[in-house]
Design a protein that fits this description.
heterodimer; A: mainly alpha; 6 helices; B: mainly beta; seven-stranded antiparallel beta sheet
Chain lengths: ~140, ~80
Amino acid sequence: MKFIKIVSAHCDLFCGVYDPAQARIEAQAVYNAVHKYNESDDEVFRQRCVIIKEERAQLTKEHLWVLWTDYFKEPHAEKFPELHDLFWRATKAAGEAKKSMHEEDAQKLIDLVDEVGHLFAKTKEGYDYEAIVNNLK
Amino acid sequence: MLRPLFIRRVEGHSMAPTLKPGQIIIASSLLSVAVGKVVVAHHEGIEIVKRVTSIEPGWIELVGDNVSPSHNARVSPTSVIGVVL
C-alpha cells in the first residue's frame, strides 16, 4: 500500500500560526549578545550578555521544536528528506550556542535557522523568508 | 496536471468518523466543488482532505468532520485538486 500517496487529515491547534521568523529573531539576538560581549570590557555588562544569550538560545531551540514537531508533517519529510537531519543539527547548534561565546557558533545557528526558513518557504505559497532576514540586517 | 481520478491513503483523525486513518479514498478533479463536499487540496506544502463549509470569492473554507480536534483551513479555489467520491 506504500505506493498510494498520503493525504493528511491531521488535527492541530486552532491557532495554526507557525513562522520561522520567531526562531530567526532569537538566533539573531544570540549573535548580537555574543558580539556585544566580545566588544565590552565591562564585567557586569558582559554577565548580562551571557544571561540574555542563554535565554535567547533556549527560545531559538523551542521555536525550532514547534516547527519540527507541530508544523512539519510526514508528507513534508517525504518531500524533503533532509528535514529531520536539518532540525537535529539546528537544535544541536542552539545548544552549542548556549555554551559558547564565539561569534562563529552563533553564526552557525543563524545559518541553520535560515536553512529551516528557506525550507519552510517552500511549503507555504507567498511566504517571503528573505524579507525576515533583510529586516534583521 | 489534474487527474480525472486519483487515490490517496488517509492519515490522521480530523475527518473521523467519515474517513478513518488508513482508509483509501478515490477523488476526481472532474466533479464540482460545493459546500458539504469532501475535497483534497494543497495546503502548506502537503495534501489535506477536509469538508467544504464555505465558498467565498477567492477562497474556500475547509474543516474536518471531527470538529473538536480539527482546525479550519482556507485555501484558494485552485488549490483544490479533487472531490472525494
